[in-house]
Amino acid sequence: MGGLLPLCAAALLLLLLLAAGGAIPPPEEAARMARFVLHNCDWGALATLSAQEGLRGRPFANIFSLSDGPPGPFSGSGVPYLYLTDMEISVQDLEINSNASLTVSLAQTPYCKKHRYDPQNPLCAHIIFCGSIVKVNDSEAGLAKKALFSRHPEMESWPKDHNWFFAKFNITNIWVLDYFGGLKIVTPEEYYSVKP
């Protein structure tokens, strides 16, 4: 029950932030939009190149919980952190080829439902990141743990014998779809230089 209260408080804070006027960055601020969407999403679709028998070399998408920092305005680092185990099928793919893409969408927040935007509507913003998954080093592990466990408190009780580890999505390319007219390209430098 104790873990439920912080989760409810975080969900309420997110709802209030998304309901606040002007909380969503304008379409001309694509880098801010990318940071905003990532920070307000708790999970994403991670696509790998499969290493599994019968699927080898084919795209394989899977859902993963993620976080770039604790809930709240201006508390995100922009780095998508993940909590992984080698037992997971997509992680086995990443051991062969660490390249991946990650898609996050405001469709998972109350924003798109409130405005009656279909998840495929460009106004229901989504971001596509390309890059690679890397294990975090010891100096970054505390930051990753705080980011993930603050949003996903259940993770702390996951079976220890699964050898969980903290990882991050090392971003090399970013595409933003948040308005009509096609994708916008944001460089990692632009992305990390703004606040959500």
UniProtKB/TrEMBL annotation:
Recite the UniProt keywords alphabetically.
Answer: Glycoprotein, Secreted, Signal
- Asked if the Swiss-Prot or TrEMBL record annotates the protein with the keyword Repeat, the reply is no
Coiled-coil region: none
Q: Which GO terms describe its cellular component?
A: cytoplasm; endomembrane system; extracellular space
Q: Which InterPro entries match?
A: CREG (IPR014631), CREG_beta-barrel (IPR055343), Split_barrel_FMN-bd (IPR012349)
Superkingdom of origin organism: Eukaryota
Annotated PANTHER family: CREG1 PROTEIN (PTHR13343), PROTEIN CREG1 (PTHR13343:SF21)
UniProt lists the family membership as follows:
Belongs to the CREG family.
Q: What is this protein called?
A: CREG1 protein
Record the organism.
Spizaetus tyrannus (black hawk-eagle)
Q: Gene that codes for this?
A: Creg1
